[in-house]
Amino acid sequence: MDERAEWTLTLRQVFQDVQLQAVEASGYLRNPSGAAHQRTLVPAVRRFSALFSDEVRDGKRGVVEEAFALFLEETWLAVARVLVAPKVSDVVLLAVASFVGEFLRRKSSRSKEPKGKEELRAGLLKRLMEATKAEDRVVRLRACHMLQIVVNRQDYIEEELVTQLRDTMLRRLNDKLTSVRIQSIYGLKKLQGGPAEHEDEEETDEEPDKEEDAVTQELRKLMVSDPSKDVRKAALLNLTVSRKMYQDVLVRVRDASEDVRFAAFRMIGNAMPMEDIPINDRAHLLDQGLQDRAARVRRACEQMVLKKWFSECGSSPVLLLQALDIEQYSEIGSKVSRILLKHLSEQPRALLEKEGVVEFNALDMMSENSDAFNAESIFFWREQCYYYQKIDNDPDKAAAILPNVSDFSKMLVATCKAESDVLFIAQQLLEFGHLLDFQDEFGRRNLLDALQKLLRELGTDSQLIKGIMQLMAFVYSRSSEQEFIQVVAEIISDMYDPVEASNQEVSASQQEDPEIPSSQQEASTENEPSPLSFGPQLNKLSEEDREAAEVKFEELEKRLDTLEFDSEEYNKVQADMLALEALLQDPKVLSWLRCLEIVAQLLKLTSHNLSDPIVDGMSRYILPAIDSDVPALREAGLENLGLFCLLDKRLAERYLIVFWRALNNPEEETEVKHTCVQAILDMAFSFTNLQPHIFGAKQAEDVGDAEGKDDSAKESADQDAAKEGDKDSDNDGDKSGDKDGKEDNASDEDEDMEKVDEAEPVAGPEKLDLDTIFIGLGQLVTVDDLDLQSTIVEGFCRLFMMNRIDNITVLAILLETYFSPKLQKVQQLSEHGFQSRSLQLLSIFFPAFVMATTANCMLLEEAATHLIQKSMEKLEMENDSMLDLGACSKYVMHLLSHNEQEEEAAVQAVKARKKRAKKPERRRCAHHNRIGITVCLEILALEKVAAMPAIRQDVVTTRQKALLKMIAWVGVTVDEQRSAALFKYLLQEITSSCFSSQKGLLRSADAMLKRTSASYSEQSTEQSDDQQAAALAQDQTWAHGLVKEREDVLHEVLLKASAEHEKWLKKQEREKKAKRRRNARYLSSGSSDSSESESDEGSDNEPPAAAPVRRKLSSRRSKTAAVSRMHEKEGEFEAKIKQALQADDADEEDEDEYDEEDSESDEEDGEEEEASAAEEEEEEASASEGDE
After folding, report:
1. What backbone phi and psi angles, to 5 degrees, belong to 699?
2. Is 572 a residue whose pLDDT tops 60?
3. Nearest CA to 636 among 628, 488, 719?
4. Are 74 and 4 in contact (CB under 8 A)?
5. Where are the compositionally biased (Acidic residues) regions (predicted)?
6. Dihedral, CA atoms, 134, 140, 142, 143, nearest 10 degrees?
7. Distance CA 1109, CA 1112 (A)
8. In a domain? residue 874
9. How confident is the model over 22-32, as pLDDT tens digits?
10. pLDDT tens-digit profile of 1135-1171?
11. Which of 153, 376, 655, 1128 could anchor a disulfide with 321, C-beta 3.0 to 4.6 Å?
12. Are 82 and 142 in contact (CB under 8 A)?
């Protein structure tokens, strides 16, 4: 007994020493898995192992089984004391767990262990697993923590224990305590199924081990959906990353938590080689990481590039840019290049040489081998010059790698005239030109001449026009912008005027002919129609050829979408499309398009307005394009007109109707409509209080004209363009022109425009204001075209934040879009976990809009009220595409509670470090009261409508349920006493007069009334007086009047909804009856077949009998038997048909509105059955003849 007590005391002493050492040294927490920590545990583990060998393995004192049981019990008591102690430091728990795990550690399945140690390990782990089920949360947390440390210490665990540990830890993943879930995640790190091992077996094994997959699936689920950022981070760090799993990790770079995003970049950088990550995913990683709002996340992304990816590319900047596909992701390439340049400039040269960094000097490369220049080299060369000039401010380094202007001009011209595969290089060189030193006047003139020639040539790619114009504007900005405008105007005029000049020669020859009087010439010009008397005349194909070519082009385009990219068939179809496109394009159309491209860039780059006659004359090229039958010309013309209107408010008001009508033209191209939307929004951004001119009214002089119903806006545009064309033709002889003449023409044009505006129409002019336009744009917000949707949503958000719009309907449309079920599905289908751009914009817009001003709060309240009423007026409420009113109400009430405003004010006060910071003022608003009143009025109106005839109760109940879900989020406030009292009164009215047949809804309404009354009593401190009672009576009268108004509106809506619902129910009933008939028919045929098969099977089982003697019949008698069988079948068939028709007639009497549809369907069924009966008769007759 004394010996037993001695070694027991020794065991306890070992545990006490471990705990004491942990308290004295804090290295356990700083580095629990490092070498220093391991050394501190070595003496204790040796003592404990020796004690186990002496007392259990050798069995010197007593029976081995008793010694083992006692040793296990004493060890567990020492561990359990740590678990249940009221106050235990984390270092003590960590030290004891590490000590136990190190003692129980087994390196592999082949390593030898002392006898009984395996049983000891199993016993301790099972008791720890049981402890994780404790009701006390502290014990449960410590048990999970200790268990995960012990498990992670083991290099090998028996398969039976692995299964038990996995099941135990998986159950703990659903624990309500965040810390327990985190420790369970760490414990499952080594218990995953090893996806790397099964990755190669996926093709052969369709069903991998479910237990192994369960751990990975749970970790992936927690990483995505757990509300705690610490749990998501732990799941991310402990998930084994592979090619299969890394896509889930990739989504976490967009997590809401900074810690999770930081962990995601560290995880991907350490676990995934760059070559295993697709190029688009690399771009996504860098796009998210390098512009993250948190500095530590940006540094983690930069370290991933510098420490991992850069070294994997041989420390060569060019190779790294090649791996990032800078032609598609040039902005990301710029950010990566500047990170590399900053890193290289900060590191000593000796260290860079030691790391094997490849030094890049573009001029040396060009002098040695010009063919070695590629897109990545040019790109990094430009980034080098930009970094040294603009960021590092080192002119000496920049001068060392900059070329002279003359050499640059030759390189640029040679590149721009090359094939399209060097288009990216040409674009980079055009951007590079902004960094050159233009002190060399000769080189500057050469460069400008080269740029002008490139503009004049139609062979120059359209994507280069923007870069050429920007470089020209940059070079001319050092001297004179007016010179730049004149040069560009001359280029445009020379490209546009050749055909027009030939037209002018024809008209001049007619005027010079002495045989034709001038009066006859004028009469002939008036009588002869001329569809386009301005601009280049198009060489059109015949209508049939053009239509055939367009149809074939569309077919090829659809086929191209189904083919694999860059395959042989894909390239062949693409070549055919290019040939067709060249056939459809007219050279003069291309020339006109080039003019419009140059005009657009000129309007973007100039700072002059319409006071400059050259800029004012640009309308000569723009207005004719709007009336063209070529979609590309119309699109370019509308884009230019939108830019042109931004120069003057009067122009914007004059031509806004043109964009509006093109937008509402159902036959217009999608690209043209997108251009119109952008132009309308740009004008709304630029000018306040726009008042669009109305051209849609038919003038008195056009009463008898049948074509007066067309767009008169286009007619007026044509008139303006014709006048300007005459003006320009008069000035062709002298291009310097007479400015007075131009001003006279311009004034005449304005006078004619005013005359058109002031002419009295036969009918009143149509009403068009900005609200009408904005509502029309809001109705275009659909999921079918996400680009157009995001453009409109972004425009509305900007207009609301600029206080340019206060339309409630538009704000309600935005709110409905934010909660659109269809738009929510886009996030699930998109790559990288992206939401649609519209959702991202609206998630930022609504909180910022509400926090801006009190007036914005009122707008949101009115928009919510409008949305509630419109939702109740919809015919279908249970559709999948129906708005979730409960979620929408919850969000709106959260925004209008002003909690975020108070938090923001508190943060600003802390930042200001005021000694006596005042409590932030709370906005005293009663939005909840007023929205609650609106909901109550709708419920009361619905209850009155439900009592009317022809109204289905289920249609009403659906709406009442939706309204009760909304009112659940309404909180009463006494900041506005009258609205609070009225809201409480309306709730009492609902509970007393509504939901008489809906007990569940009545209980919900009672609960809301109790909650509202309690909150009202707590907040209300003043006693009610006669004045408040009188005010409440007035409010009650007002509320009953509104209920009456809504009752009339909802009655009409619910009548239609009830009728539609009744039709739907009858349709469902008819389908069920038809299904029952078909099933009965199949069952009867199946039973006859089964009886025949059973008889056949029975005959097969019986012993073979003697064949009966066949009775011989004459041909006449056999034919008579066949005919009699046919008559019997006909009788049975006619009886069945009569029964079916009688049932259908009974159904028709109950369904009067479906008489025509039922009769048609019955006739079709009868014809089908008669046809099948005739086929059966023919088959029987043929069979009987065969028997004969």
Report:
1. -80, 160
2. yes
3. 628
4. no
5. 198-214, 746-760, 1091-1100, 1144-1188
6. 60
7. 9
8. yes
9. 877 655 544 55
10. 666 665 665 555 545 444 444 444 444 444 444 444 5
11. 376
12. yes
The tokens describing 526, both together, are: 């008036």
Q: Tell me, what amino acid is at 161?
A: L
**Enclosing domain of residue 135:** 2-191
CA-wise closest residue to 141 among 128, 152, 125: 128
Count of all residues that appear for the chain in the document:
1188
> Exposure string (b/e) for 326-350, b if CB count within 10 Å is 16 or more?
bbebbebbbbbbbbbbeebeeeeee
| pLDDT tens column, 976-998 | 888 888 998 999 999 988 888 88
Distance, CA of 140 to chain centre: 42
- Supply the angle between the helices 885-896 and 837-852 in degrees, to the nearest 10: 40
Lowest average pLDDT, out of 709-718, 962-971, 1170-1179, goes to: 709-718
Handedness of CA 491, 492, 495, 497 (dihedral sign): negative
Residue 859 sits in the same domain as residue 997 = no
Q: Same domain, yes or no, for 73 and 12?
A: yes
Q: Which of 954, 940, 1041 is nearest to 993 (CA)?
A: 940
Count up the domains in the chain and report the number: 3
Last residue of a domain, one of 889, 913, 937: 913
The pLDDT tens digits for 1054-1088 are: 888 888 888 888 888 888 888 887 777 666 655 55
How does pLDDT run across 1085-1133, given as a tens digit for each residue? 555 554 544 444 444 444 444 444 444 444 444 455 555 655 665 566 5
Domain termination site, one of 867, 886, 913: 913
Whether residue 89 contacts residue 23, with contact meaning beta carbons closer than 8 Å, is answered with yes
Percent of the chain with pLDDT over 70: 70
Does residue 1058 belong to any structural domain of this protein?
yes
Positive or negative, the CA dihedral 1087, 1089, 1091, 1097 is negative
Give the C-alpha separation, 814 to 820, whole Å: 10
Split at pLDDT 50, 70, 90, the class of 180 is very high
Q: Residue 1077 and residue 1172: Cα distance in Å, rounded?
A: 17
Q: Running DSSP on this structure, what letter comes out for residue 188?
A: T
pLDDT at position 611 over 50: yes
pTM for the whole structure: 0.71
Contact 534, 595 (CB under 8 A): no
Q: What are phi and psi of 485, to 5 degrees?
A: -65, -40
